Amino acid sequence: MLRNDPRQSRNVPKYGAWSENPQISGLTPLAPLFPKAHMDPAEIVLRNRIEDFQREQFDGFTSRELADMDVITDRQLKESTLDNPIMPLFQQQRWEIQPHQPDLTRDHMYPLIIDGVQRGDWSMHNPLVYEKLKPVLQLASRTITSMYTLPWFAALIFGERVPIDPARIRPKDEVPDNLVSFLPYNITDYSLVRKRMEEVFDDLENNWNCKFGFMSPDEDPRGPEYPIDPEDTLPDSVYGLTVTNYQYMEYHEAENKEWQIYVWLAYSRLQSLFRNDLTTSERKMVEWATAITLVHEIVHAINFVCPRIDGTRVSNPDDENPPWFFDDEALAEAGFSFEVALNGGTVRSFTTVRGMPYGHWFETIWPSVESQDLCGSKSITLMNPGPFDYQERFPIPASFYEDMQQREFWDYMVHRFGHKLFHYRSINHGVRLNFDIYTKNRTPIKFRDISTIRIVPVTPEPGHDNEILRERWESIQAILGAQGESEERKIAQSFGMSLLQSSKIENSFWTHEETQRRGAAAIFEHLKKQSVSEEERLSDLTHLIGFMWTIVQNHKNKIDALLKSGQADIPQLQIPSEERRRALLAWNRGTSIFVNQCSKQFPNALGDHKFQLSTLGLSLEILRLQIFSPNLQTETIKSGPDFMELALLLRLQDSFLKGDRISCWDFVKRIREIEGCSLFAFLCTLWVDTVIYEGSETNLERVKSMRGFESMGNWWRELWDKSSGGEWEGMFRIWEGVREEAERRVRSAHHM
Q1: Which end of the chain lies in a sparser environment, N or C, as judged by fewer CB atoms within 10 Å?
Q2: Quick check: 405 and 139 in contact, CB under 8 A?
Q3: Which long-range contacts (CB under 8 A, 24 or more apart) does 51-57 make?
Q4: DSSP annotation string for 6-59
Q5: What is the DSSP string of 368-387?
Q6: How many whole angstroms separate alpha carbon 341 and alpha carbon 331?
Q7: d(C-alpha 740, C-alpha 733), whole Å
Q8: Could you tell me which residues are beta bridge partners of residue 241?
Q9: How many other C-beta atoms are found inside a 10 Å radius of the C-beta of residue 257?
Q10: What span, in angstroms and rounded, lies between the C-alpha atoms of 122 and 267?
């Protein structure tokens, strides 16, 4: 029921009053309305209006729904158990104690106001500030010292720098200087990344004299010559800023000038940590979000330090230029691109109340058209591919913030499973926002919201593997074309880009079945169009197969890196985790289904095309056997299609040895009905089905089914050869006896 207490809601001082009632915030979850003999119509109307207001604030969710998901809670969260030291880069002596003149022109510090009284300045040298920020510094240190295990970070410090293709520049855009992208870097020895990361931080400390401080939301911390960007006037729209003393180095006549890097944190959000009415969830939420901001800004600082495109050191880093693009991303915002690699999404506050976020979304689609507001004023938005025309948001549960400050979580979970664990712990219910782009000739491209759709929970069961495979699709763009795409082409292009990206990153793709079904259907529809010549169709199919080989190779590289990660000097990547293997298995199965669909869609394809598609399926199965064990004693994955197949195969084997034909037929049927039945499982059922067959050997269906028996045997031998010496060796030996019996049966039938 609604509060009958006339006193002000406890959320009003923090989040402001609801426009229709100054006594309540309108954000507090409403208590469940239990059935009564008589329902007060006025109460029902009021509840409906409050919940309508909440849905406007939270993209369709009510506060009650968010509370039921543990996103909004007043329960007491566990105290922090982090005991790691604060990294040298963040030590107190590196924080501003007085204005950085003459390098910067600002001549004042910012007062710390608590309950209307000034309590010193916003400085880490102020004990009051340091006490509140210590958990932030510890969490940021813990995150940074392990981020070398992310492939994205290896790309930042080792990846090749390449110029932006002019075809990706919009016709009316002004191109800033030094416009480059850094490419993914294939590495398996992460100790090299760690060593280089340590060198970069040493460079930041000793050669760039990196300093930290706090900034007001109302002015640029450098000085009055830098007016606030009109687009950044909304409360809390800027949480941090990383700059150099470029103006001083370029124009000041002083001698012995030295380059400096400055990292600023906006204190508006941190001000809330001095409130005495915060819940532990709200406090840890602010601490975590601030730590992520600090890590985000460090990535920008590294962006200044790393080599330029020609390999030489940056000697004149104009901080007004945008950061580099990552690979084929359409936006240049290295900090947010890194957040996606780290957390699975960028972070956006629920509310616009200064300093009080109430909650956060993970926005998992990067970059989308709405992400343009996260970029600097000189940034441009690339095309071919451009940003996505939709966004998916997932509210972050309080348990996520709680776990981030538990030493055990980092020592035993993150070190074992990797940072991707963050992705799966936060994505549950969400919303999809669809946008309509109506101006695209210059940056920023203009768009409008057109719909909001609720997303059902994502689970690590069959078909899991969310969405990211969205980067390039270069081969398929030859099929679909880059200009003037039809709706069908847009669907297929989005599908392809998403599929490619997910082959590079442990993330999901085959989750949103309807989206993927439409994408695959669009590709097949295009390839089968009557208006396309046979020559074009064959060329397009060749491009598609070439593209599929690219993503399968990416998948192999990912598995190779995962299986080689048990080196003693890389504790963060000791054992391939169940969570990571589930993601890879689901991706593998979904992609195998797509390859099989390609084969079925083009029964009259050239022999080489058929061979290539068959080999793709075989390659995917070889990789699947590397990440799933047939030993039920040691395999930790106890659900999903791979486990189900294995369990049924063992029962099929038992029934076959007992001569129980009826049970064999039942198990064969059940195994083949599993979505994306694996090649190994299918071959095993084929051997059994061939042996227990009781009909006429001259039956047309029997003859047709036996035509590919020899090639199936070749696949089996290749599969066995690639898996020899591994855990599957025993399974192959067991089923080889059944295959030999099936082969004798086939030879006998041919003789007849």
Answers
A1: C
A2: yes
A3: 53/18, 53/20, 53/26, 54/26, 54/27, 57/27, 57/350, 57/351
A4: -SPPTTHHHH--BTTBTT--S-SPPPP----SS--HHHHHHHHHHHHHHHHHTT
A5: BGGGGGGS-TT-----SS--
A6: 15
A7: 11
A8: 264
A9: 14
A10: 8
Q: Is the pLDDT of residue 142 over 90?
A: yes
Rounded to whole angstroms, the Cα distance separating 604 from 602 reads 5
Q: Which two tokens stand for residue 217?
A: 């939301």
Give the alpha-carbon dihedral of 38, 41, 45, 50, to 10 degrees: -40
Could you tell me the two tokens for 71?
């996103």
Reference 198, options 278, 89, 47, 273; nearest CA is 89
- Choice among 476-485, 542-551, 664-673, 708-717 with the minimum mean pLDDT: 476-485
Query: pLDDT tens digit string along 688-700?
Result: 988 888 766 656 6
647 three-state secondary structure:
helix
3-state SS record for 206-218: HCCCCEEEEECCC
Do 498 and 467 contact (CB within 8 A), yes or no? yes
DSSP 539: H
What count of Cα atoms within 13 Å lies in the side-chain half-sphere of residue 394?
24
Cα 582 from Cα 729, distance rounded (Å): 22
Number of H helices, E strands in the chain: 26, 13
- Longest pairwise C-alpha distance within the chain: 101
64: left (phi over 0), alpha (psi -120 to 50) or beta: alpha
CA–chain centroid gap for 450, Å, is: 24
**Average pLDDT of 696-706?**
61
Q: State the CB neighbour count (10 A cutoff) for residue 167.
A: 9
CA geometry: angle 168, 170, 171, nearest 5 deg: 125
Residue 640's nearest CA partner among 572, 587, 561 is 587
CB neighbour burial string for 59-83, b if at least 16 within 10 angstroms, e if fewer: bbbbbbbbbebbbbbeeebeebebe
With tokens 């924080």, the residue in question is: 95
Q: Which of 693, 664, 698, 681 is nearest to 732 (CA)?
A: 681
Angle between helices 280-305 and 190-206 (to 10 degrees): 90
Give me 162's structure tokens.
């390449």
Q: What are 530-563's pLDDT values in tens digits?
A: 445 666 667 777 777 877 787 788 778 777 766 7
Strand order in the sheet with 390-395: 346-349, 360-363, 390-395, 430-439, 446-455
Q: How far is residue 741's CA from residue 752's CA, in Å, rounded to a whole number?
A: 17
Give the pair of three-digit tokens for residue 266.
């906006």
Q: Where are the beta strands (DSSP E) in 271-429?
A: 325-326, 346-349, 360-363, 390-395
Tell me the average pLDDT across 309-321.
Answer: 55
Strand ranges inside 322-445, DSSP E: 325-326, 346-349, 360-363, 390-395, 430-439
What mean pLDDT, rounded, does the chain reach? Answer: 79
Distances (CA, A) of 366 to 90, 183, 391, 540, 589: 29, 16, 8, 28, 25
Distances (CA, A) of 82 to 135, 140, 141: 8, 11, 11
Amino acid at 125: H
Q: Please report, for residues 94, 194, 503, 637, the alpha-carbon distance to residue 577 in angstroms, rounded to integers and kept in the order given.
A: 38, 21, 18, 10
Structure tokens at 621: 């199965």
Cβ atoms within 10 Å, residue 111: 12
* One-letter identity of residue 592: S
